[in-house]
Amino acid sequence: MSGRALPTGVAPATTGAGPAHPVTRGAAAVPAGFNAAGAADGGASGAPRGVRTLRRAARGLVVAALAACLVAVLPAAAFAHVKVTADAAVQGGYAALTFRIPNEHDDVSTTKIEVRLPSDFPLASVSVKPHPGWSYEIEKATLATPIESHGAKIGEVPSKITWTASGEDSAIKPGEYDEFSVSAGPLPETDQLAFKTLQYYSDGEVVRWIQEQGTGDEEPERPAPVLELTAKGAVASAPATAARAATAAGTGSDAGVSWAIGLSAASLVICLGCAVALALRWRRTG
């Protein structure tokens, strides 16, 4: 080789089988393992490691938000029980009872309700409030030992009330509930009355709300509706007691559902907000 200097930016040709590799003026060599943009190769996307981390974090937050919704909302279904309430239920008096029936299914309707009146504490008189779109039937039972009501001996008492929807338009549809009212009395001298209830669906399923509340804190899966009674001597405080009982029985399910939905919604908003922040940071980084 002569002693002439090569022009600036031109590399000497290599010898042997390999082809020559000219180098463009001013361009830096790209190390192995990096793409043309100078970022580390990370798969087809070629995104920098920090961006990939942000993406994974965003996906994780969305998954966490959905999981929070499932964890909070699914147990809320347990609060959607059949309930019985009364404005005032005093032993020895009469009360207007309201049975709240929710539809727990998402694809079939409730077409029939069967309420069994307590046999251990029979009610001498029961009157049913007409319900539009539904017919009703009252069955009676003969008592082994007659009871006394207003000075008269009564040997036959109402034992069961059955409401039946006249058609699909009247049935309790998915996501809805309905209320059925009766007047009953005289109420017996006991702390509470249980009304075992059977709920019939249009697909033939029968849900039996007949389980009794045990001594523990855990509520049965299908508890029978229970009406709390106020003692005669506590008539002065009966309205407040009845109001508390109605609140616990009638709105307890609503409070539980609202709390669960609110918690899941808050979790979803927080997680989605973090995901959006990460996405914006990713856009700025990318």
Task: Kindly summarize this structure in a few lines.
With 286 residues, this protein is an alpha+beta fold. It has helices at 49-73, 238-250, 252-285, and strands at 83-86, 95-102, 110-116, 125-128, 134-149, 152-165, 177-185, 192-194, 196-201, 206-209, 226-228.
Fold blueprint:
Elements: H1 49-73, E1 83-86, E2 95-102, E3 110-116, E4 125-128, E5 134-149, E6 152-165, E7 177-185, E8 192-194, E9 196-201, E10 206-209, E11 226-228, H2 238-250, H3 252-285
Antiparallel strand pairs: 1-2, 2-7, 3-6, 3-9, 4-7, 5-6, 8-11, 9-10
What is the 3D shape?
A: elongated
CA radius of gyration: 36 Å
Q: Could you tell me the mean pLDDT?
A: 75
Bin the helical content: 25-40%
The count of strands amounts to 11
Major sheet attributes = 5 strands, antiparallel
What class do helices, strands and sheet pairing give?
alpha+beta
Task: Name the features.
25% helix, five-stranded antiparallel beta sheet, 3 helices, 27% strand, alpha+beta
